[in-house]
Task: structure prediction
Amino acid sequence: MSGQEIPDLRTLLGSRRGGPSRGRARGRGGFGSSHEGREALKDEAVRNTDQDAAGSRVSCVELGYLHDPYAKLFATQPATRRLPLLNRGSYVRTSAIDDLVDRFMNASTGPKQIISLGAGTDTRYFRLRDRYPDLQLVYHEIDFATNTAAKLTSIQRHPQLHSKLTSRSAPNPLALPPAATTYHSSTYNVHALDLRTLAASSEENTLPTLPNIDPTLPTLLLSEMCLVYLPAPTVSSILSSFLQKYIPEPTPVSLILYEPILPNDAFGRTMISNLSTRNIHLPTLLAYPELSDQRARLQQYGFHQGAHVADTASIWRAWVTDEEKERVAALEMLDELEELDLLLRHYCVAWGWRDSGSEGVFTKAWADIKEQ
Amino acid sequence: MSSGGCDLDKAIQQLRACRPIPENQVRELCHKARELLIEEGNVVGVDAPVTICGDIHGQFHDLMELFRVGGDVPDTNYLFMGDFVDRGFYSLESFLLLLCLKVRYPDRITLIRGNHESRQITTVYGFYDECLRKYGSANVWRYCCEVFDYLALGALVSGAATSLVPTDGPMAENTNLDNFPDSDADIEIETLNANGEIMYRYARNSDSQSSQPNSNPASSSPIAPTPSRVGPAGTGATSSANGSVKNDTGAILCVHGGLSPLIDTIDKIRLLDRKQEVPHEGAMCDLLWSDPDEIEGWGLSPRGAGFLFGADIVKCFNYKNDLSLIARAHQLVMEGFKEMFESTIVTVWSAPNYCYRCGNVAAILELGEDGSNAGYQRRSNGDQGGGGGGWILGSNDGSSSNMVGNGNDRRLSSVLGDNMQRTRDGPGRRYRVFEAAPQDSRGMPAKKPVADYFL
Result:
C-alpha cells in the first residue's frame, strides 16, 4: 500500500475544520444544524468517491486491464498505480457490467435507452458510441450538480469527447455557458439532480422533468456504487419513480446494481468501520446483506421476469473465459490471492428486469447469463 | 553504530518508537547483519522453546502487539518466517527493528526469507516507495535488499516437547468447558487469546480432534522406524514405550511458502546457492512461493510462482525427513492459524487486520522445550501475555499411561490393521491469537490508514 494510495484525508478535514458551520456542526447550534452539517459532510464524501473510481479506472487502463481511451480525460487527479488486487477487482466489475450492457445492445436492432444513476466520470457512453456507431441510443447520466459540472468541463476541454457529441446532434457542448451543469441532446443527456429529490417528490407527485427521457424505449437503469449510499426506503421510492412514472409499464425496464455485500463478517465489519472514517456510509449494505437479499430486493421492485445475482468472485470464475483470464493474469504478478478472493466475495452484481417474457428484449438478452 | 550494544540499543529504542534511524546507521546495520547472516546455513538450526511467527507486512504497531502477547526479545526466542515488508505503512521500521534485534541478540531471533523480501516484489507492493518517501533516495531500500539476499531459506526446530502442561490461566469468555479434555489428558493443542485466557484445548488422540479425518490407510505415509531410546529417567509410565513418546517428536521445518518438487530432502535445501534475488522459478522460488492445497501431488499455483502441493506430498516429505510438522506462513488465514493434512502442516499468519482491511486475527505458535530437566521458563513479561502454566517436560506428570505411544501404535496398528498414518506425534502447540493494535495507539492521525475499496 504505497503512499499515493492513501486518500487525502485533509480534504475532508479541511471542510470539517474550515467550514463556516464548524461551531454549529459541533452541536452548539442545536440538533437541526448539526444534523445538516453531518449530512453535508456525508454528501461531499459521497461526491468525492467518484474521483476514487476514476483513478481506479485509469490505473486499470494504463496497465492494460481495460481498453478505455476516455478514462484519463475525466480523471482530475494524477494517475496512481493501484495494487494488483484492486486492478483485478476493477477489471471484474467493469467487464461484468460491460457484458450485461453489450448483450442488451445486441439483443435487438431497435432504439434503446440507458439511464446511469450517479454516473460521475463514467465513460460508458463514449465507449458505447465507438462500439455501436449505428445503434439508436438515448443515454442519460444523473449526478450531483458539482459532478455534472466537472464532467461537462472535461467534455468541453477534450476534443476527443466533445467531437463525439457534435458529430451526432446539436447542441455543441462548446456552446454551453461556463459552469453549466446540464446538457441535453437527442442521444446524450447530463442531468444535475440529487436523486433523493425523486424520493421526496414521488410522494407529492411533483417529479422533476428529466428532458429527453423516453417513456417508451426499452430502458436499462444502471447503479454502480450509487444507490448504496442511500437508505433502502429512499432507494425504493427513487426506483419506483423510474419504474412507474418516468418509464411506466409496459415498457421493458431493467436494473443493474453493483454493490458490496456481506457486512456482517470480519471483512465486512472492517469495511464499514474503515469507510465510516472517511464519512462514507452504506445503508443498503445492511438492508441487503446477502446475495439472496439482493435477489429478493429485485423481485420486490417488480422485476418479475428476471432477478439474478452473482458476487464478483464467482463472476471472475464463471464469466471470464480461460483465454481472457490468462491474459489478465499475465498483466501483473498477483501475490494477494486470499485477499483478492475475500475482496471479490464482498461485491456483487445484481440484475433484474421486467418485459414481456420469452420475446422480451431483456429476457432474450440475458437468457444465457449464469447467476451464482 | 559501533559493534557494542550501546548504539544498537539506542537504535532499537528509536525504532521501537516507530522512528526511522538515519541512513548511515542503516548502512552500518545492514553491513553487520550481512556478516552475521552469511554465517547461517540455508536452513538454520533452532532449539525449542521457540515462538514461530508468520507474515508481518510492515504493520509495525501490530508487531509491537505481537511482542506484548508473545514476550519481548531476548526473553522469548523468536522465529519469523518472512514477509516483514510491503503492504503496511511501516515496513521500514518493522524490518529495521527486527534486524537490529537480530544483530543485538543473534541467538534469540531467527529471520528467514519471505517472497516479499525481494527487489522485484518490493517495488510493486510498497517497500520501495516507502524508503523513497522516508529517505528521499533508494539507498536504504538497496541496503535492505542486500540483506534480503542473505536471509536463510528455512529453519529446523529441534527439541520440541510433544505435550503441553495446560495453561493455568482463566478461561476466555464463551469458552465451552464441555469440550475440554480431562485434567489428566495429554494436551496437544491450546489456543489462548491476547490476554492469555484459554479459548480451546485439545487432548492428543481425543475425539475433539475428529475434525482431522483419518486418511486412507493405503496412502503413502509410512511408519517410522522404532525409536531406539527409552523413556527418560524418572518416568512414571508403565512401559518404556509409553514413557519415551513424550520426547519423541521429530523436528519442525519452518519455511515461508512450502515445498518444492525439486526438493525431497532438507539436505537439498542446504545445497542451494541462496545469496541472490529470489528467482522466478526453481527450488528457492518454490520454498518462498508454494502453498498447500486439497489436491493430490503437485499443482500449478495461481500466483504465477511456486506450486500447490497436497497432503501426500507433505506426509511423504515429513516421513523422509523425520519431521513432525511443517510450519509456514504466506497465506492469509482469517483465524490466524490453520492446520492441514492431519496437522502435518500449519499456516501461521501474524498480521492482524491485514492491510487494515481484512478483519482477520493473527496468531503466533509457541513450541515448548523437550527434556527431562529444564523447567518451563516463565516469560519475563508475564504480567502482559502469559497466563502462567508451562510445558510438560519429561513425562513425570503421571498422565502418560493413558497415552498410546508411537512404538505401541505401530504394534497396535499391525495387529488391528487400523490406519495409523502419523509417523511422528506433532509437537505440543500453543497458539496465541491476537487482534490488531488499537487504532489510537498508532499515533499520527494524518497517517491513519484507510484501506482501499471499490467506490
